[in-house]
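Q: Right-handed parallel beta-helix repeat-containing protein, please. Structure only.
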Amino acid sequence: MKKNRLKILFAAFIIGSSLIIHSCSKDEDITSEIAVVGIAQDPNNFKGDVTNGQVVTLDPMKSYKLTGIVTIKNGGTLVIPAGIKITATAGAASYILVEQGGKIFANGTAGSPVLFTSETTVAGNWGGIVICGKAPINTGSTGSSEIGNLIYGGTEADDNSGSLNFVRIEYAGAEFAAGKKFNGLSLFGIGSVTRVESVALLNNADDGIEIYGGTVNVSNIVSASNTNNAFSYKDGWIGSATNIFTKRKADGTGNNGIKGINNNTNPTAIPISKPTIKNVTLIGGTNTGESNAFKLSSGTQADIENIVTSNWQTGFNFEGDETITYFNDQNKIKDILFSTNTTTKASATSTAGTAVTISPNTYIEKTDATGAGNGILIPSWAVGWSGLQ
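A: Structure for Right-handed parallel beta-helix repeat-containing protein:
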């Protein structure tokens, strides 16, 4: 008993500088219950590094102002409990950056999601969330992220960068260099143990979510009212995307529902992008921009099933010889409902730029396909927490 009291007194003495105490029983060794709070001490000035060995846990009773860059370094962990609201106030200089070996755990609930937002409701008013992992990519043994110049990629297919669950990211996508913008969520070489599910990307100024290689599996994703692609991937991604609901901006701006690439400069680079994409609803708008429900190019492959599209100029647009060879006449696309106002169900353009005839066996239609779960309507799993009603 006396030994435990001394530990508690010592811990209480240093709480003001860097440590916080969690409750424990009298017979419990409290050293395992101490979490470093570091940068989390001032919720009105949330920025800085979470360093190796630190576990920074935000206070669920407080809201936070993101006044700069929060970097979770290799060996550091940031924990964001349910219901916390983080408001960015420094434009392109405010964003969350997770290095290889760092972990972020933003775990909300359907009734109390974690919210990343901006002080003004303008697309592109802050950066976004960037996570770098150690899973394989096809642009080299490793790569360097555009944002932060961080190393990503490697050989650890089961790498773990933490979890995002019941999270909403809105008004991100600030321009960080001439002609270059953040996405709402950027996943660079993320491994399969990382959990990304029930994540909403709303009103961002570039892609809602972009996946750069890796093996991560994503599910229950909402991407709506973003100014570029709702969902994009490239560089050898071989994970899965299940239950995806996307919707174009009301004014018709934006581009593709899902844009898939293998490798921009080498369409045969390995590992070849080959995700499983299943249970998807893609809602377009007025036919501006590229206006493809799916744009698949530069060697990408995919297994695609149970898709509902509406209001797109083209349902499936295939570009490049390798991609066309994989999909054309191969029954890789199953159970498709072109719901309303799709001008062209599928088109293809060779690497040389000539039109290619699409075989009837390229896709199989299904008049009662459900897509993300509710046809062209918002699926029940997305209502409320995602910002959609």
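A: Brief note, in case it's useful. Residues 2-274+286-295+311-317 form one domain.
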